[in-house]
Amino acid sequence: MMYKTVTHVLFDLDGLLIDSEKLYTEAFTNVCAMYGEVFTWELKKSILGFQGHECAEKIIKALNIQTSVEKFMEECRKEYEVVFRHVQLMPGAQKLVEHLHNKGVPLALATSSGQDSVDMKMQNHKDFLKNFHHLTMGTSDPEVTKGKPDPAIFLVCASKFPDKPSPEDCLVFEDAVNGVKAACAANMQVVVVPDPRIEPEQLQNATLQLKSLEDFQPELFGLPPYD
């Protein structure tokens, strides 16, 4: 496989840089249980990478829960306040991000989460966020008209670098099928570090698939190698 040299790097957040996906699962499991329903992996898989409102809609519909999206989201928010205090960085996340930042590679975050959610999750990781030139947050950014798998979030995110790199000059890091689809639709190369339960054929359009961020070799994409 030939990889093309890139100059800018865009990172997803949930499940890639931080272990928040398992905390979302905990929150959704607790809220579904209030309504006597079970939040399964099948359901989890169908909402990975979607924005909050879409997730709530899908869960309510799939489980036929008799409540409004707003009420369900409010219940989830209460759960988030408890579970998100314990967010940890994923293995290799700090090393990779700090390395690229220290070598002068422009970095940005492209997350489906909104500002409130990011603030809650990153309350103990504020220094880590300083490595990024900007954060594009799908749920609270009016320019991001559609969630992943639509490419909007990555195109908007790339456009916020002062030197306006073309999509071909950007490398995306993702963990979800919808994120890979969005990056491909944006015409960007994409490295995926997936949940091991995701079927490999769903990720075949990714440029590179890794088990961990620790396995990434920056020089494959013309980025500065580790010292």
Automatic annotation (TrEMBL):
Gene3D superfamilies found in the cross-reference section: HAD superfamily/HAD-like, Putative phosphatase, domain 2
Pfam families xrefs: HAD_2 (PF13419)
Protein name per Swiss-Prot or TrEMBL: Pseudouridine-5'-phosphatase
InterPro entries: HAD-like_sf, HAD-SF_hydro_IA, HAD_2, HAD_sf, PGP-like_dom2
GO molecular function: phosphatase activity
Domain of life the protein comes from: Eukaryota
